[in-house]
Design brief:
This is Protein LYK5. With about 260 residues, the protein is α+β, with helices and mostly antiparallel strands. Helices cover about 40% and strands about 10% of the residues. It has a domain of about 180 residues: Transferase(Phosphotransferase), domain 1 (Orthogonal Bundle), CATH 1.10.510.10. The strands form four sheets. It has a two-stranded antiparallel sheet with strand order 1-2. About 0% of the residues have low confidence.
Length: about 260
């Protein structure tokens, strides 16, 4: 049985005229997609709210991967499947593609010939070879973190651009490599934040997201590792004072 505060709760079901209806708890504030990509009708998410949402989703995935029996791979994580309650706490929803992991499966590895999902969130090993492991969710979560950081969609919709160059999972590699990382990261971050964020913590979160979307699944962190890192980032974010930002931001380009 799945029971977690950051997983949407099934309240009941009913049968009517041969159809089955599922009733879930109500999420007052809609989906994360609405907040990040349709800001004409929604308020702007502040830095601390964004980190809290990432923390909530990581908590849910860590629970699904490690604390249910059998364990689950969500397999369809994206911002439209992350709902927000009245307090803007995240609820992972839509388990239509979820897979269970039995205890005797080697490393949680499964294979499929039927690759389904949303462009921008799919891990390379799944697209290329149909490999399904918990690292599939880790990759998708990394993309969600990048959306929270940048306000951009997982994959650009412009038809005149190559898909690879327009994926957030590719863009972040260029942002964090080479020189002038602080300037490139500042340009990458959501302008709706209006510079009201701790740049050193944004850098830490971007690095974590980058590690989650590495091409090789074996180099990606596990969800317990991701959750632990986000716990630290959230704690520091809650203590963050905007007046400290000038001194803190200097550490990114020097010594890192």
């Amino acid at each position: 049985m799945i029971n977690h505060s950051n997983v949407i709760r099934l309240s009941g079901f009913c049968l009517h005229e041969g159809n089955t209806y599922l009733v879930y708890e109500y999420a007052d504030n809609g989906s994360l997609t609405d907040w990040l990509h349709f800001n004409n009708t929604y308020r702007i998410l502040a830095w601390k709210q964004r980190v809290r949402i990432a923390y909530d989703v990581a908590d849910a995935l860590n629970y699904l991967h490690n604390y249910t029996n059998p364990s689950y791979i969500h397999k369809n994580l994206k911002t439209s499947n992350i709902l927000l309650d009245a307090n803007l706490r995240a609820k992972v929803a839509n388990f239509g593609l979820a897979r269970t992991l039995e205890n005797d499966q080697d490393g949680g590895l499964q294979l499929t010939r039927h690759v389904v999902g949303t462009q921008g969130y799919l891990a390379p090993e799944y697209i290329e070879n149909g490999v399904i492991t918990p690292k599939l969710d880790v990759f998708a979560f990394g993309v969600v973190m990048l959306e929270l950081l940048s306000g951009k969609e997982a994959a650009a919709t412009a038809i005149d651009k190559s898909a690879g160059d327009d994926l957030l999972s590719v863009m972040i590699m260029r942002v964090l490599e080479g020189d002038n990382v602080r300037e490139k990261l500042s340009a990458f971050l959501d302008p709706c934040l209006r510079d009201e964020y701790p740049l050193d913590l944004a850098f830490s979160m971007a690095q974590l997201a980058k590690s989650c979307v590495e091409h090789d699944l074996n180099t990606r962190p596990s969800m317990p590792q991701v959750f632990m890192m986000l716990s630290k980032i959230l704690s520091s974010s809650l203590d963050w004072d905007p007046s400290d930002e000038l001194n803190r931001s200097r550490s990114i380009d020097s010594g890192r």
